[in-house]
């Protein structure tokens, strides 16, 4: 009987055993990948109003695109990098490929999706680490999640509706009007609580909320990006009363210079100009002076902003201009505010001497210059020098891990950013 049972079990295994060349799946790996790629392409091209695309660079914050894919392999897109890129669609091509997994590849140059990875698009020494090849990670409903192949940037695609593009443009219009607030410091009042906000409009897109708690200034910093509902925080700000995850700018009054807004939780608020920080760290100026981002110097790509006008002295119009370079310890006796033009030092610009005041300001006097600028640009250089050595001095505001702003202590209507 025992022998019979063993024979029966052996027969059962023999019947159920798979052959060496049997497939677990009905289709081969290549067939399954091709089917997946076909499904993604169908989903991308069938959205009548395209896709909202949110790209999150490693440096922080995010950029928003509106993308429309067609079956012929073309993609038309706008990007919220500037007014020009937001209103002027550009077309390039894309492919769906099998890399280590199904992938979306923007395979010909686009002035938008490739912009952040191309150093030629910036007056800075290097590009930013952003991808243009993305692995599909998840597709649920109207949302597709992708991850960059090289830098692991997140790309989020959300199916757009007819109104999304206009809403995004409206958000940028009102946010841009905050330049009408002519002071650097911007006071946010929400639900009876007061904060000061600072933000960068170029990469990295960071926003900082400063507030007083137990007689101490605290700062919450996070990245931001835009969608059809306004400015969104990468990480919500817990105010103690509620969490602010987004700010929807509804109106700007040019007479009062006040921006009206509603938070994501429905709380009404306003932003208006301020002339001084809530509370000032007396050590920040020396920290800036003694610890340049690369160990030697700081760079500024846009010069001074005055009354909300970026590059008010038009340093970017200097032929071959790359950036301003502030080298605090260029010489034991003086610093150098230099002009990098066509990749090298220009033979002009001031040799300032720094002074630190008891109230934590930094100011400069002039020890001379490094030469006379050409007559065509001399008015620009002279204006920058005069503003740099303004005896009122500057607050030094830390805006990120390795970024600082120098803000006029006279009226906070002039500032310059360094990285």
From TrEMBL:
It comes from Solitalea canadensis (strain ATCC 29591 / DSM 3403 / JCM 21819 / LMG 8368 / NBRC 15130 / NCIMB 12057 / USAM 9D). It holds the Pfam family DUF4302. InterPro entries: DUF4302. Keywords: Signal. This is DUF4302 domain-containing protein. It comes from the Bacteria. Residues 1-19 form the signal peptide.
